[in-house]
């Protein structure tokens, strides 16, 4: 297993910027890596990506020096295992609202004694052909993997104090659009009540000493979020492409 540079930066209170992408093409991940982004989040929720394709995308990330992460579609330990065994170095789990769901996520991501992840002769451990023994690898993997539940519902906000106390979680990523929907605002998160709720969530996560993450649609927005203590900023690949294309098309006058 490679060192998780993103987790190292976050531990050092340094911001990381990356993309959430629903492409099944490894070339997209490779391009994002060569562009200098910190992480590539495979979207296994809103995409047709298969676990076979995950492995090829992870290889492209490794070639181009970008940390491979993934949003997995469900809190299924066997599915999470397949992503991790392919070499994904952190899991962002959508729809986590209760302590039991958060604890289940930690158990799925971590090997014993912190979790129940099963061990196999897979590429994540160099098929046990590398320099680490099994014991060394298990310890290293538990240190390197990121666990990032998403806060996307009113229930999650109501349970936030208890969620913050779950051992093994590195931080929380706020999903503003789904949170707004859960609050009854179906047209987006631009409402004052949603903004106040998100601000409160950000402060609570920071006070707990955990990583705060959310969406940033531009460099200026990412800078503003980082100034507020949000260290994990993600755009979508399609969003980046749209903004770059719009800027390029200004040349037409």
Automatic annotation (TrEMBL):
Domain HpcH/HpaI aldolase/citrate lyase span(s) in chain numbering: 20-239
Gene Ontology molecular function: aldehyde-lyase activity; metal ion binding
Any Pfam family matching the protein: HpcH_HpaI
Keywords: Lyase, Metal-binding
GO annotation, cellular component aspect: cytoplasm
Gene3D superfamilies per the UniProt record, alphabetical: Phosphoenolpyruvate-binding domains
Family of this protein: Belongs to the HpcH/HpaI aldolase family.
PANTHER family: 2-KETO-3-DEOXY-L-RHAMNONATE ALDOLASE, PHOSPHOENOLPYRUVATE CARBOXYLASE FAMILY PROTEIN
Record's protein name: Host specificity protein
Organism field: Spirosoma validum
